[in-house]
Amino acid sequence: MPWDVLLEIFSVMHPRELLILARTSKEYREFLMSRNAARFWKAARQQSESDLPDCPPFLSEPAYANLVFFAHCHNCTAPNVKTVIWEFLARYCQKCKEDMRRRLSDHTEIYFMVDIVEQDTRVKIADFLNGIHISPSRGSFPRPFYHSEEFREFQRDVYGLRAGVHLSAFVKQKAENVKLRKQFATTMREWETKQDQRRVSENEALKDARLEAVKQRLRDEGYGPQLDTMVLDELKLLGPVRQARQLSDRGWKTIRDKVVGFMESVRVDVPGQVGE
What we know:
Domain F-box: 1-44
Number of strands: 5
Organism: Polyporus arcularius HHB13444
Protein name: F-box domain-containing protein
Order of helices and strands: HHHHHEEHEHHEEHHHHH
């Protein structure tokens, strides 16, 4: 297929589709992971999630898409991992999450290194390493946990400081990066909250529309007088009715007997109702 056609297709694809495509061949991967392809990722992101915050400066567009749209564990690739740890820029399944987040006291060598860095620079670890606060057990106070990978990276970077690069300058840069990451994490959690609220609203609208469709089907079968006098709460909460999906003809055939059976069970003495 000609590249100009492919480029047109890329520009209207969902970021998740671009991620899958990038994994299908070496050629696609090399192109889609190049800087020249950033505009396609950006266009895909903006058209699929118009309110999604812009890609942060510390992530590439493909990496951002992978973080937001690909629900696989970043360590073992297990599927259906819904939660993103934004401070770590990662998704982890429950098993890997336990391995990838660590308290400072779990790493003796790094513990002493961090202690020296804090004393030399007067900067606390919470300001130069990305952390999250978790309650280890029910009722316990939240404690700071850090990313295992970042521990190792920090250790490597400190040992590898070039001659003439002062530790304070290095830690200052790390602190600026952590500040940006915290701001990003806050922004993304706010976005997630809005997404959750939107989904709830959309689901409620679908449920309300389904209830109205069921009521119309019942009226078509002669249950109008009963609907006009009964309290609709029980019908509204009936399992086949209280679903966030449109009611098709086929769907009505599937649930009709149960819904009609319910109407018969709560029938009231209304002149002209079905069966009189």
